[in-house]
């Protein structure tokens, strides 16, 4: 008879009356020395019959005092990245905050070339008279000053009719690009060149939402692009070049019109 660790699995002690386990429980008491092992002669059973829990028919296995205490398995350390490889700073910069890859610089260049070619074709058709005047005057001046590059430059700069046609074509092309970009971004969040290259223009850090761009954001982005182009006419194209090169070092790979418009360009993964 006496108090022993509860064979039912609790952290308390249960009383053994010499023939069976009672329902009396108590908190375990600290002892100075380990209790001596009991055998059959001490009145404690060598093996314990299963005890049915009160109110149910579930059979549980009783643990004896000599059974080792169960220990919880050590938690397995979960590596945050496969193989414990942490992404580099550059690889983290190549994603939006919601995990969509940003477009590479060369993909953007290719998309821009495609768009420029399309717009030039449309402008050439719409402004056929100016194109015809420009080409005719330029070819005549080039033929008259054949073999002298400086003479051609001087002749072109002094031909007011040719310069007027050139300015009209340039302005028409920029305005055409503004209208084209606004319409395409508002409808499908990408120009034709970007669709071909699987690029999409999205709001900053919202790469998952690439169905269409809000109309006012598309208009703002296109207008800023046009402003950069017009200013570049007075800076020999330096501002335009700077804007197009910005994604090479800018953290979010944005151009000037991306920064002002609050947009990024992503590249959709292959299905």
UniProtKB/TrEMBL annotation:
Transmembrane segments: 105-127, 178-202, 222-245
Pfam family, one: DUF2510
Basic and acidic residues composition bias: residue spans: 36-49
Residue ranges of domain RDD in the record: 102-261
Listed GO CC annotations: plasma membrane
Compartment(s) of residence: Cell membrane
Membrane topology label: Multi-pass membrane protein
UniProt region (Disordered), positions on chain: 26-93
DUF2510 domain mapped to chain residues: 2-32
Keywords from the UniProt entry: Cell membrane, Membrane, Transmembrane, Transmembrane helix
Domain of life from the UniProt record: Bacteria
Protein name according to UniProt: RDD family protein
Originating species: Acidipropionibacterium acidipropionici
């Amino acid at each position: 008879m006496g108090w022993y660790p509860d064979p039912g699995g609790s952290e308390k002690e249960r009383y053994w009356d010499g023939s069976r386990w009672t329902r009396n429980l108590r908190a375990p008491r600290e002892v100075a020395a380990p209790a001596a092992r009991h055998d059959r002669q001490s009145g404690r059973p060598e093996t314990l019959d299963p005890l049915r829990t009160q109110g149910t028919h579930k059979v549980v296995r009783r643990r004896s005092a000599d059974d080792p205490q169960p220990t919880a398995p050590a938690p397995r350390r979960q590596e945050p990245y496969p193989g414990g490889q942490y992404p580099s700073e550059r690889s983290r910069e190549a994603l939006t905050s919601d995990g969509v890859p940003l477009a590479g610089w060369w993909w953007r260049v290719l998309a821009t070339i495609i768009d420029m070619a399309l717009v030039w074709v449309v402008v050439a058709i719409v402004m056929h008279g100016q194109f015809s005047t420009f080409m005719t005057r330029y070819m005549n001046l080039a033929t008259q000053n054949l073999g002298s590059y400086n003479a051609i430059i001087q002749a072109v700069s002094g031909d007011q009719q040719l310069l007027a046609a050139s300015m009209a074509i340039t302005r028409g092309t920029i305005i055409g690009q503004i209208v084209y970009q606004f319409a395409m971004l508002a409808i499908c969040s990408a120009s034709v060149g970007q669709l071909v290259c699987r690029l999409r223009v999205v709001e900053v850090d919202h790469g998952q939402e690439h169905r269409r761009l809000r109309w006012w954001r598309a208009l703002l982005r296109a207008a800023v692009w046009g402003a950069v182009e017009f200013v570049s006419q007075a800076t020999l194209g330096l501002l335009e070049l700077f804007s197009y090169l910005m994604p090479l070092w800018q953290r979010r790979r944005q151009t000037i019109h991306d920064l002002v418009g609050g947009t990024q360009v992503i590249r959709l993964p292959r299905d």
